[in-house]
Structure formats: C-alpha cells, structure tokens
Amino acid sequence: MEAAGSSRLAHTGLLVLFPGFFVYHALVDLGLPPVLGGYSVLAAALMVPVVLLAYTMSLRERGAVWMDIALALLLAWTLVAMGMAAGRNRAPAIVVSYAGAMIQWVALYGVARSLALGSPRLNRWCQISWWLMTLVSLSSLSLENLLQGTLGLGVLEDDESLANYQDFGLLYLIVTLLCIALSERAWFRWGVLVVSVAILFLNGARSEFAALVLGVFMLAVLRSRHPWLLVLAAVVAALGIWASTDALVALFPDNRIVALVESSYEYSATERQEMAEHAWNLVQTSPLAGDFGNYRPGEYAHSILSAWVDLGIGGLLLMLLMLGLPILDALRRMGGHAGAMSNHRRVMLVLLLLALLLLFVAKTHTYNLLPFALGLYANDAAQRLRPMPSAATA
User: Fold this and answer.
1) Domain with 246 in it
2) pLDDT tens digits, residue range 97-144?
3) Which pTM was predicted?
4) CA neighbor of 51 nearest in space, from 366, 375, 288, 294
5) Number of domains composing the chain
6) In whole angstroms, how large is the CA radius of gyration of the chain?
7) Sequential DSSP letters for 68-119
8) pLDDT tens digits for range 131-162
C-alpha cells in the first residue's frame, strides 16, 4: 500500500514538473501574469514536501541506498560552499541561483527515486506527459515560426524572469526518452521519435537535440540483436545530413541547430572557450577548495570544471563517483545480454551516460538531467535490494 502511495505522489510530481511547466508557459504566452516566474524553482519548491513524503513512504518498504547518502552529502557540501560565499558577500546572484538549482535537484531526484519502475502505470503517465507537452508545443507553432525553423514558445526567453529554450528542451528530452524506452509498441516509438526530433529541432536546444538523437540510438542498440547494422545506418544517415547542410541552412536560416554548421556558432564556441580558460586558471590557483562564484553570473564553465571551481576537488570527485559508479554497475549487470535488460534499466543507463557526456562537454554540474538520472538509479538499486510486489508482477 505504501509503495503504491509513494509512486502515486511521484507520478503527481512528474505531471507538475514536466507538462505543468509547458502548460504554465503557454498560458503566460496567452497573457496570464507570470506569477510563478520561470515556474521551475517555485514548482519544485511546492513539490519538495510531496517527494519527501513519497521518499519517506518508500523508505519504510525498501530502505535507503548509498546514492541517497551521496546526494545528501553533495547537497550539504554545496550548502557549506554557498554559506561561505554568502558570508564573504561573494556573488549573491550566483548563490541565489544555486539555491534554486538545489531545490530543483531535490524535487527531480525525489520524483525519479519514487516512480513505479517496471509498472505499466509509469509507462501510462509518461505517455500522458509526452502528449501534453507535445500538444502545447505544437499549439505554439505558427507559419512564421515554421518557416524560420523556430518554436513559438521560444519567444518567452526574451523575459529573463521566465524559462528559456534549454529548460523546455531538457524536460522534453527526459520524457521523450522515457516514452521511447518504456513502450513495447514499435509504431508508437517511431511516432514519438519523429515528432520529438522535429520539436527539439525547432526548439533550438543544441545539447538536448544531440542528446535525444544519441539517446535514441543507444536505446536502439541496447534493444537490437544486430547493433552493428544500426551503427552502419547511423553513419550513412550522418553523412547524408552533412551533405545536405547547405540546403538546411537555406531552408531554416534562423534555426540554432543549423547554426552549428555556420560561422555564427563560432562566437558561442569562443565564449565558452574563454569561460573554460578562466575556470582552469581558478582551479590552478586554488585546486583544493576551488573559488566559489568567482565569475560573472552565467559565465561559468560549461563542463565538469564548474564543479571544481565551485565545490573544490572534493566536490568534483564526489560528483564523478556519483555518476561513474552507477554506470559501471549498470554495465557490469548488463554483461553481454543487453537484450535481456528491462526497459527502465535501459533508459536509466542511457540517461546516466548522457548526463556524464554532457557534463564533460556542454553543461555545468547543476544541470537538471543529473538528479533525475541519479534518482532512477537509486530507485532501481532499492528495488533490487527489496523488490516491490507490484513492480515484480507488472
């Protein structure tokens, strides 16, 4: 009974944090006053008591796992770093931003930690979430947006109090991969893939678009009996797209994904290189403790270096262990039998791999894919220790 109750709370959190985000911004676009700002932080704050209750209920059945303790340690470590920075009046805007990120981490980890893995209910709620998010995204399209290769909801990023295209892209990425991984119907998986690739292409979130393509490819390889054929098909498709870049640029001149092959992307790459160099100089000066917030808001290193800067070498190593050990554990358990993996373990492994990859090449260490992926791993680890009757029979 408690297991069912905790999963119901988690599924409620899934609806509030994912499609709720899309619905709220669509209403703001229609004229609703943005009373919740960018939505993510305040919605997460409202969900924290809910997910903590769900987590407490699941603890009575299955107990804690090492990832729960590691996350608590990381949050405590971060709070200490934030407190020391606040005490020195260092970068107050960055401290506030960190506080919001930590609230979202707790909510996202708590939702993933309490989902009913292995249950048809999870598949159903993921599909409901995907349909809501997709319909809201499509409703924002106009002919002008379509011709420009942009998504209508992207105009919201002009207001700094609201979310930007990357927030939309990440939430849509997570739900899409869950839908594709959990569904047993091939036609539905293909439909979700085609629609989601189109929406993320128009959305313009480059990292999330690449993560979706790579994540779907990894899921297909894990399902396939002939993975090398998929690799060959992917190479052929990539060559075809590369050969069509001029046509894509002419067709979608304002699209951020297409801009990757244009000179306009060089400015963004140069900026990120300068941020990485600044971060490297900071950790060379203070390799043990780092130098929390010693950069202008938004000008953090878009890589794992950001953890070293803000949390020191201890925080960096803790984050690497929290991501690396689950991946090694999942690969060890998979062995040479990827086809025998359960659907939720496939998507768990893929999300962990994507989180690690993006953390090294494109995202800061507060990226919200990390807590969701880690929460799924903790959920699965707890289920292995003491399986739920409902999950075992689903």
Assistant:
1) 2-393
2) 889 999 999 999 999 999 989 888 999 999 999 999 999 888 876 545
3) 0.90
4) 375
5) 1
6) 21
7) HHHHHHHHHHHHHHHHHHHHTT--HHHHHHHHHHHHHHHHHHHHHHHS-TT-
8) 999 998 888 765 455 544 455 554 444 455 56
